[in-house]
């Protein structure tokens, strides 16, 4: 999206409300997950959340006239949903049994680091820009501060940390696959099918791990029930709708700021509402990690914009002197 596509920008107050919703709502879902799994098994809770939200999205998309997807589009949406929501979000939900919600958000924010590395290592991948390399290096330093041994922070459960890093890697893989996959053109239809498919995988995992047999609906606490409702309505429906609207109405570099604003909200809420520890080392690691993600997001966005301008120039005028720079950068 370039500046010309934003010539008829929406009112500023709409943009402010949409950004605030994505920042606060998505940042608060980490705490919502923690409260929801207090009395509900993680895979079962997460599967139920996405089953309800995904079904509502598909019904709404069809009511708005979205066409039913082709077999290939349905398959692509199913793969993305299993990777993002079952592998990624499901891993996060399970790990929050062992890791505080604020720290969870800081480990999940490593997704841009994984995306950069996967893009580089895949067949035909492109070498990252030097500034992106700096961001990856800083991200690894921040990660070491968050989970490495030492006396300035709280002990981090190693299994929980490993699951979170694996979940971030799976989410990154799903993100890269989704960028190239043939998905339904209607965003609500695509996301609804992804959520529905992820829900099926999560509920199957709940069955395999014995969670279904352990479900005690009578034992679900009011706080867990309210948290689940919040995750469905605000986290999945409202949060996604606002994000989809921002993709179409705000520059990508601004929209991507949710990646380093969400953990700030999550850490603050975990400390203020749930009494989670907030140490000097955690603050330092959070600052380094968020700064690293900001660098990666900014410079990857600039590179994409440069490629689009050069592609237009090549189409209209033929090769330019910058082609070689783009291929080697």
Strand content: under 5%
Low-confidence stretches: 1-7, 310-316, 318-329
Estimate percent helicity. over 70%
DSSP strand tally: 0
Helix-strand layout with pairing:
Layout: H1 12-36, H2 42-63, H3 71-95, H4 101-108, H5 111-121, H6 130-147, H7 158-180, H8 187-208, H9 211-214, H10 222-249, H11 252-255, H12 258-272, H13 280-317, H14 323-328
Helix pairs in contact: 1-4, 1-10, 1-12, 2-3, 2-8, 2-10, 3-7, 3-8, 4-12, 5-7, 6-13, 12-13
Please describe what this structure looks like.
This protein is mainly alpha-helical and 329 residues long. The chain is built from 14 helices and no strands.
Can you give keywords for this protein?
disordered C terminus, 14 helices, mainly alpha, 329 residues
Summed up, what is this model?
The protein has 329 residues and is mostly helical. Helix content is 76%, strand content 0%. α3 (71-95) crosses α8 and α4 (101-108) runs antiparallel to α12.
């Amino acid at each position: 999206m370039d500046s010309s596509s934003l010539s008829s920008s929406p009112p500023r107050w709409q943009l402010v409300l949409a950004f605030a919703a994505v920042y606060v709502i998505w940042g608060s879902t980490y705490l919502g997950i923690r409260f929801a799994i207090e009395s509900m098994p993680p895979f079962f809770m997460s599967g139920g959340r996405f089953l309800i939200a995904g079904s509502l999205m598909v019904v709404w998309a069809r009511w708005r006239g979205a066409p039913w997807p082709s077999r290939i589009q349905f398959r692509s949406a199913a793969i993305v949903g299993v990777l993002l929501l079952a592998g990624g979000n499901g891993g996060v939900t399970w790990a929050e049994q062992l890791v505080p919600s604020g720290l969870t958000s800081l480990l999940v924010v490593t997704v841009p680091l994984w995306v950069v590395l996967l893009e580089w290592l895949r067949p035909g991948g492109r070498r990252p820009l030097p500034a992106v390399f700096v961001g990856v290096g800083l991200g690894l330093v921040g990660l070491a501060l968050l989970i490495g041994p030492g006396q300035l922070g709280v002990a981090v459960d190693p299994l929980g940390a490993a699951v979170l890093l694996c979940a971030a890697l799976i989410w990154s893989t799903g993100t890269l696959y989704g960028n190239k996959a043939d998905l339904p053109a209607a965003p609500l239809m695509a996301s609804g099918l992804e959520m529905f498919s992820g829900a099926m995988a999560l509920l199957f995992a709940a069955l395999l791990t014995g969670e279904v047999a352990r479900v005690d609906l009578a034992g679900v606490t009011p706080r867990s029930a309210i948290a689940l409702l919040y995750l469905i309505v605000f986290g999945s429906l409202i949060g996604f709708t606002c994000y989809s609207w921002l993709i179409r109405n705000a520059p990508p570099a601004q929209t991507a700021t949710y990646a380093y604003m969400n953990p700030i909200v999550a850490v603050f809420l975990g400390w203020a509402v749930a009494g989670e520890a907030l140490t000097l080392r955690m603050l330092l690691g959070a600052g380094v990690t968020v700064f690293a993600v900001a660098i990666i997001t900014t410079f990857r966005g600039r590179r994409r914009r440069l490629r689009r301008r050069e592609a237009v120039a090549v189409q209209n005028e033929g090769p330019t002197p910058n082609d070689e720079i783009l291929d080697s950068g």
